[in-house]
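SUBJECT: protein chain
CONTENTS: sequence, structure tokens:
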Amino acid sequence: MSRQSSEEKRPVLLVGATGDLGGRTLRALQARGKRVRALVRPGSDVSGLPKEDVEIVRGDMLDPPSLKPAMEGVSAVVSSAIGYSRRRETDSLRTDTEGNRNLVDAAKAAGVPRFVLLSILACDQAPNVPHFWAKKVTEDRLQEQGVPFVALRPGAFLGGPWMKGLLEQGQVLAATPVGVQITYIAPDEVARDLALAVDEPRALGQRIDLGSDRALSGPELIDLIGGLLGRPMKPATMQGGASADMLAMFQFFQTGKYVANTRHQAELFGPVPQIQETARRMLADFGLLPAVSEH
């Protein structure tokens, strides 16, 4: 009993806590009663993190010596960190390649009991998409190094700050044409499953697809959102200046391989969310749903 109590008091190291998904994951971990230690790069703004109940450790995935203090005494590592989105000017794919390798090696050296990795759906089938392949390489390194791991592979996020501006302009980013479907999932669902994966014994050593109950083509997504809003929506075009990495991702979407098998998700984490409800919740969160008349 005392051993279990001691285990519960050890913090979960969260890497990427200052990002949108990282913040959601932090809250999901806390909702499960976890103590959270956040690895935050020097100079990063931590004003969005809770003032209490979060231990902040400064370190950088590209600076291996700085990772050792962060790993000491943790019950698990949860990493949602990415560099390919270039949220900061200094971000780059190095975080996803070299940085993830450093993180895995530090976890190995510290004897971390479990490493929960935010991976990407079908990453092992996309060698021409750099940030997809980087996740596949990281999964393999975890296995090769003997680090107990869980790799969660979500589909495309339906939600997050980048979508709100387009929706307010009456646009939906349609990634595929008629007949080619891809999997979507809510960021909050991904955060919830990352938190659940810390303790779920059956998830250990697994690469688990995450998605909603059905995949959608671009026109189907536009129709779904337009139907919920009660007005027609237009397809958005990709903004100019998209990186070669992002262009390669959209080309991969056209293959039809970006579709989740949600069987393991349902077995481990409960009922698979319905895409209709996922879209409705996103629009409500953005304040875009029409007012409901009261009778």
